[in-house]
Amino acid sequence: MAKILNILSTKKFWIELVIMTLGMFITACAVYYFLVPSKLIIGTISGLSIVLTNIFDSVGIHIGLSVIIMIINAILLVLAWLLIGHEFGAKTVYTAMILGPLTDVCAAILPWENIAHPNLVTGAPSVMGDPWLDLCCFVLLLSASQALMFSINASTGGLDILAKIVNKYLHFDIGTSVSIAGAVICCTAFFINDFRMVVIGLIGTWINGLVVDYFTASLNNKKRVCIVSKDYDRLRRYIVDELQRGCTLYEVIGGYTNEKSIELETLLSKDEFAKLMNYINKNEISAFTTAGNVSEVYGFWNKHKKKSKLHAEQR
């Protein structure tokens, strides 16, 4: 109980709670307004739930979409807790359980029937009037929400749990994992849709994986900076003392001059890289600098620099 109270008292917990709630509301809007009316099945648990809802309705069994979403997510949450980790599992319990109720909130605020009109191709209801436009809107909203969740070691539940399992144990990119798990689910749409709509769903699932990778890379983007300069120690002190980042020094030999020099390498955020370049230019430091984007960093990455700096001053 004391450990739980400590977690609840942290600023990090409440910030992540707000992020998860906002992300899931975006997901609920994407599902309710772009999947439900058109019965467009993308490779998601929400898509699978829509299929099951229609199958049950066809045999006279009426089960709400939110109920089916919660049942499937409950099963997957057990897998998340056992196979991925307690933090991921605990966060996903919250996100997965509020998706269904949030779709009901969307229905209460603005029912899709009030804004839908006939699909230009099939005549079925559609908010955008075209299945491809519904697809694009859904994928953009869902992918942004998924990338936001993955950045705080959470997920939107459902498909993301399967994707995270594939990512962890088969070591595929998270976007590829989303596409693989989604393609299997997407094929269940044959029960309620024609071949054309299933193909649209499969294409949407593939695009979803690509967009998730793009958003994830953008959120996690770091700069790998390499500098060759005679003032390397001055730059090292600025990086360590001011930017609160680590760096590595290498002895290198110039291929043209055959002179020995020191190369400094460090990983920085975009803002920190801008500060470093401003420092170099302002102080007229002669330096040969190269920088490249890094989308994944494993191991120690100091996210609490102010705390580290205060600790260092106290010592």
Write the layout of secondary structure elements.
Elements: H1 2-8, H2 11-35, H3 45-58, H4 65-83, H5 86-109, E1 117-118, E2 125-126, H6 131-151, H7 159-170, H8 174-186, H9 195-220, E3 222-228, H10 232-242, E4 248-253, E5 260-268, H11 270-282, E6 288-294, H12 305-314
Antiparallel strand pairs: 1-2, 3-5, 3-6, 4-5
Helix pairs in contact: 2-5, 2-6, 3-4, 4-5, 4-7, 6-9, 7-8, 8-9
State the gist of this model.
The chain is α+β, with helices and mostly antiparallel strands. The chain has 12 helices and 6 strands.
Q: Could you explain the architecture of this structure?
A:
With 315 residues, the chain is an alpha+beta fold. The chain has two domains: 2-219, no CATH class; 221-314, Alpha-Beta Plaits. It contains twelve helices and six strands. The strands form two sheets. The protein has a four-stranded antiparallel beta sheet. A two-stranded antiparallel sheet has the order 1-2. Helix 4 (65-83) packs antiparallel against helix 5, helix 4 (65-83) packs parallel to helix 7 and helix 8 packs antiparallel against helix 9 (195-220). The longest helix has 26 residues, at 195-220. The model is unreliable at 310-315 (pLDDT under 50).
